[in-house]
Amino acid sequence: MRVGHVFYDLHTHGFVRVATSTPKVRTADVAYNAQGIIEQAVEAAKHGVDLLLYPELCLSSYAIDDLHMQAALLDAVETELAGITKASRKLPSVLVIGAPLRRGGRIYNCAIAIARGKILGIVPKSYLPNYREYYEKRYFAHGRDCMGLMLDIAGQDVPFGTDILFQHKSIPGFTFGIEICEDYWSPNPPGTLAALAGATVLLNPSASNITIGKSDERHMLTRASSSRGVCAYAYSASGYGESTTDLAWDGQGMIYELGDLLVESSRFDREPELCVSDVDTQRILNERMRMGTFNDAAEAAGRPEDWFRTVTFDHEPDGGDIGLERPIRRFPFVPNRQNKLDEDCYEAFNIQVHGLIRRIEATRPKSLVIGISGGLDSTHALIVAAKACDALGLPRSTIRGYTMPGFATSDGTKSNAWKLMKAMEITAEEIDIKPTAQLMLENIGHAFSDGKPVYDTTFENVQAGLRTDYLFRLAGQHSGFVVGTGDLSELALGWCTYGVGDQMSHYNVNAGVPKTLIQYLIRWTTQTGQFDAKTGKVLLSVLDTEISPELVPADADGSIQSTESIIGPYELNDFFLHHIMRWGQKPSHVTFLAWHAWRDAQAGLWPVDFPEDAKNTYDLATIAEWLEKFLKRFFGFSQFKRSALPNGPKVSAGGALSPRGDWRAPSDAVADVWLDELRENVPES
C-alpha cells in the first residue's frame, strides 16, 4: 500500500533496507552465475531492498582453485560484469558482488559495488588466507596497500582500493564500506577503518566453508564487528552449488546492528535465498555521538574520514510505505532472549539485590523500612529486600513493612499488602494516615476539610508526603533506612511526589527498573519458584491489580483512580523512554517505530510467555497523543525531581535517570523542540 505522507517511508527516518543473497551458483560457469545474480537482484527489487550483498567471488564461484588464473575465465568475468552492470539500470538496489579482477598483472579478490548502470567502486581483499584448506595467495595479490587507485573496466574508470566509502546523496546516514571474508578474521579488520571513516553499514561478502561450530564463530565475529564498529554488519557466505571436492558450504547470511541480530538466513538451502532487514542508521549515528571512545579511536587512527575516498550515489528507491522489515521489541527493557531468559532475569534481579546488600554492609542498619501498598513497586522492593536479607543471613524480620491506608485505599490492595508481609515473614504494621491527613488539610485550609470533594494535587500529595514522612521517622526510630520503591517509569514521567514523598528514600532499589520490567520480574519469580507457593499466589494477585496511586476516592460508579488513564499506558511510555533516553531518537522516529511495533498484535516481538489477553494494540493517533504527553512531562516538567534522586543501581543497558549516571539535564528546560518535531512530521491520522 502506498501512502502519500513521507512519514510512512522508512527512508525518511534513516532506515535502509539491507539484504544478503545466496544466489544460484554453478562451479566456474560465469554466465550461469551472472544470471543467478541478476535473478536475485530482481527479487530484491520486489522487496524494496536498498543494498544487496552477495557472497565472495560469486561471479566466478569460489572453490575453483587454479581456474582463477585462466584468462578465459577472467575474460568471461569482465564480460558478465558488464552485463550485470547494464541490467542494474532498471533495478533500485545497490548490488555488491564478488569477482576476481585483473590489474597491473595481478589478480585481486574483489567486491564490486554497482548501482543504476554504474560501477561505483571496487574493494580488493586485504588479508588472504593461506593455511589449512585455503590457498588464496597462490592466485591473488592482497589489496592492503591499494589506495587512491582506479581501474578501467566495463568501459568505466572506477575507483579501486581499500580506501573507499559509498555514500547516498539523499538518505542521511546511508554510508557503507566493505571488507571481504578473511578480513574480519584478522586481528586488524580493515572494515574497522571504514567504520571510523564514517561507514554506518559494513558488508562482508564471504566464501567461508562450513565446518562444525563455524556458524557460531561467524555469529561471534559479526556481532563483535557491529558492536565494536558501532555499525550494522551484513555477512553473506557461499552456498549450494560451490564445488564440494574437499569442502562444503551452507549459505549463511546474517545482519547485525550494534550487537543485535536483526535477521539470519536458513542454512543448507538448495534454493536461492534473500535475508532482508531494515537498518537504523540514525540509531547508529546517535550512538557514535554518545560514545566518545569511538571518536577517540578515529582520531588515534589518523582521522580516516580525511583520506578515505567517498563515492556518492543515488539508487532512486521507489519510496512510499513499504513497511518495516525489522524485529521491534515492544518491551525494550524486558529480557527477550529465549535461551538466556532465566539468566537475564537472574541478572536484573540480582543487580538490585546486591546493590542493597552493599548498602546494608556499608551502613549496618538494624532495620530496613519499606512502605507496602499492595502495588507493583513496593512488592518488588520487598522481594528484593527479602533476598538481600536471605543472602546476608539476616532474619526477614529485619525488614519493617508498613501499610498506610489513606482516603482511597482499596480493600484489595490493603489485603494484598498484609498477605504479602505475612507470607514474607517480615515485621508488619499498619498506620492509618487519614486522621493525620485530615488534620493537615484542616491546618492549611483545604476545601476537603470542609466536606467538599476537592481531590486536587494538594489532596494527593498530603497523603503521599505523610507516608514518606512516617517512613523516615520510623527509620530513625528503629535505626534503619528507608528502601525506596519508586520505579524508572515514574521518574521519567514525574509521577511521584517530590521531597517528602515517594520520590525520596535513603536507597532506591527500583530507580533503574521500569514498570514493564518490574511486572515481568515479579512474574519470573513466581515461575521459577524464588519464593514459596503462598508468597507466589500473593505476587500473582498483585500483578492482576489495576495500577493506581489510590489517592482519590472511587467515583459514584465505583471506578478507581487509574494511573494509566492519566499518564498513558506504561508499555507505551517505557517504549518511548527507551528510544528517547537511550538512543536520542527524534519523536517522529519513535512514533514510526511504535506504530510498527504496536499496530498489529500478530506481528513483532512479545516477551516469552506474555499473557495473550494483555497483548494490546495502538493506532497511530493514540501513539502520537501519548507521546506528546510523555514529551511534555519528560522534557518540560519532571527533571527537577530527577536532579535530586537518592542512590540506586542502574539495571538495564537501556539506561537510568540518575544525574550521576546516564542522564544529565537542566531542570528548567522546555519541551517545545520535541513537541514541534512531533507535530510537524507525524500525520494527524
Write the layout of secondary structure elements.
Blueprint: E1 15-22, H1 30-46, E2 51-53, H2 71-87, E3 94-103, E4 106-115, E5 118-124, E6 149-153, E7 156-160, E8 164-168, E9 175-178, H3 190-197, E10 201-206, H4 214-228, E11 232-237, E12 253-257, E13 260-264, E14 273-280, H5 281-290, H6 292-300, E15 309-313, H7 341-363, E16 367-371, H8 376-392, E17 399-403, H9 411-424, E18 427-430, H10 434-443, H11 457-477, E19 480-484, H12 488-493, E20 507-508, H13 515-527, H14 533-543, H15 563-567, H16 570-582, H17 587-598, H18 620-636, H19 639-642, H20 672-681
Mean pLDDT, rounded to whole units?
A: 94
Q: What is the strand tally?
A: 20
Q: What's the story with the biggest beta sheet?
A: 7 strands, mixed
In the sheet with the most strands, the strands line up as 13-12-11-10-9-8-15
Shape: elongated
What is the number of helices?
20
Using only C-alpha atoms, the radius of gyration works out to: 30 Å
Considering DSSP H and I runs of 4 or more, what fraction of the residues is helical? 25-40%
> What structural category arises from helix and sheet content?
alpha/beta
Which regions have little confidence, pLDDT < 50, spanning 5+ residues? none
The rounded distance between the terminal residues' Cα atoms is 16 Å
Measured by DSSP, the beta-strand proportion falls in: 15-25%
